[in-house]
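Exercise: predict the structure of this protein bound to DGJ.
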Amino acid sequence: MIEKHQTEPIYSIQLKQSSYVVGVAAGRFPYLLHWGASIPAVTREDGPGRPPLRAFEVADFPEGDASSSSLPVEYALFGGADYRAPSVLVRDREGAPRSTLELLESTVQSGPPELSALPGVDAAEEHLSFLFRVAETGLRLVLTYAALPEIDVVLRHVRLENRSDDPAAAYSVERLMSVTVPVEAGRGGAGRAPGGAAHQAAAAGAGAPAAGSGWELLTLDGAHARERYPHRTALRPGTTAIGSRRGSSSHRHTPWAALVPPDTSEHRGEAYGVGLLYSGDFLIEAEVDEEGACRMNAGLHPDTTRFTLAPGEAVDAPQCALGFSRDGLNGLSHCFHGLVADYLTPAAWRGRPRPVLLNSWEAAYFDVTEADILEIGRTGAQLGVELLVLDDGWFGERNDDTTSLGDWQVNRKKLPGGLERLAGGIHELRLQFGLWVEPEMVSRDSELYRAHPDWCLHVAGEPRLESRNQLVLDLSRAEVRDWMADWLTELIDRVGIDYIKWDMNRYLSNVGSAVAPAGRQAEVPYRYMEGLYAVLGLVTERFPEVLFEGCSGGGGRFDLGMMPYFPQYWTSDNTDAVSRLPIQYGSSYLFPQAAVGAHVTSVPNHQVGRSAPLGFRSMVAMAGNWGFELDPRELSEREAAIIRAEIGWYREHRALLQFGSFYRLENPLVSYSRESSWLVVSRDRSEAVAFWFRPFAEANRRGVRWRLAGLDPDRYYRGSYMRTEEVSSGSREEHDLGGPLSGAELMHRGLPLPPMEQDYAGIRLHLRADAHL
Ligand code: DGJ
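Solution:
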């Protein structure tokens, strides 16, 4: 609910457990009065409903006073006396920065805000918008706010329009952020060393306590095959930033960050999250000033993405989701899990069980034949698999990664009956049929490239840099988008495909277009993303029943912007179970488990050579959307029996595992032995499955207490468990936990785990509330 102040342009956005209060001061400064735990709506000047103690008074900063650099403004144009990193840098045709806003109107309207061509949530019941004029220009700035109260998420959106009548009045937009979020000096106090462990370590290293903001920043960072490790660091004076100039959000950083006081833990304390609904170049920065106050910006990366705004034109920054929780980082994850599961995931796939899939990649790589794939499908079906995915290698002359991207005709030497006969054969096995494609790419060695050499991104006079032997198609071009949407639609229709894996295996370079209007090459990174979202929107809406899985060399470009098209995403090319512990743990900060693809693969593992036992591999993958990527014909009888039983177990508990509330319990990056634990709890808290792992044994360790979370403290639970080594040995005997045990005891006292003196130890515990107690 959005409530307006009686007289002033102050609006209180009231969510389930939080309030977001924003106003405009002096008609010029949009500013944040409060974002955090719920407070009464600010509706009157006196008595109940009066504004909270204001962070500042307008009178404190007369025009021209450089002190505006410390105001908690919500959006700032560069050029005046606010010297912090701005939200927008816009220059007139003389090159002068234009910075002064004038509020024209503020309104609350029903329904969601008008969205741009970029991904957005269209479910809000009402929205607030501020319309500003940039003084003495035809530029208009529209800031909108919509709320998803149930999940404590505020959605912000920014549009810059040139409404000038003068045809020569073009502006250059050199920086465009989706949000600016000011936060006051944090709980550690301005200018003092915050108490967080990370900060103390940093300060100790420097030999003296450093001045800090009292805030810590958590980001998800990594590389190919090491995606989304969580990093938490104390903010020091100056700017801490993550971003991407790679044309996609990348494996390196995820366009999401959390700001927390040092004492916030997984389950306690305040946590503020900022997530961009965008998959291209981005910047998220946190700037701490001399008082310890912090300002965060999140939006388009200004190094790569700039615009010319001619009269009549507008540009939209990506939508940004702001989440708040008082229940620590795990509580914040629930805000974003709710956003993904209930708002971003395509409607047909919300809460819909995802099939157990078997993917051909690690089984066959490029060496696919009709007979082999059918055999793999037949053997998989006997194990209980539900979907067979034919990965790379089925088209053109694709025998390795040097050729044929763009030539999406089936290779008849490999599949003589075409995809239709293969799909028919797979369907006869009562399996769904899935197919891999990489639509955004073209190989230099392809019919497509020979016919349309200018269809790839390139800059005249620069070499066309290849990566994995491929170039990137120019999706800013309408004919390229049409071609792509046409062949995909025709293919899915003709073959009868149930699932598509949409891959993207390189970053963008030489990002220019043969058709960009004069002077507008710097818009191409953004126009590429607009084009990509347009094709994705078209194809996924045309086939709502087809399950689309995103992929980008594993878990690159796994971000909120992809979630409206892909109900699930391939989390990482690294399928080693030990390596997957931190990858899945980190991914869980932002993504619910149904979105996180996790496969059991063969050993020795193809990425790291490790041979983890089957029980361990199977249980670790259950943190995500569970499947297989191996040749089932190579399994021993014992292994096949284990997998058949594990699939049965998974299918029985699938609804809970895929859609229950997720709780992180132990961070695998903390201990030498990589101890790791999580659990999922049903929405009514009557059922839970918990996992605990210690991949590397350590000598002379005592048993540990395993403290759970998310249960009902007042209910009693009974449970049964199995160990990884029992699953690996083929035993299916569940051990009775004893009890009943109260939820409070399981969470606050914990279960004693005995010492485990072998590698790859682990436990899977199933709990059910006792109906009679
Ligand atoms: C990269 C993906 O991450 C893999 O799973 C596989 O699909 C290959 N591409 C195929 O080329």
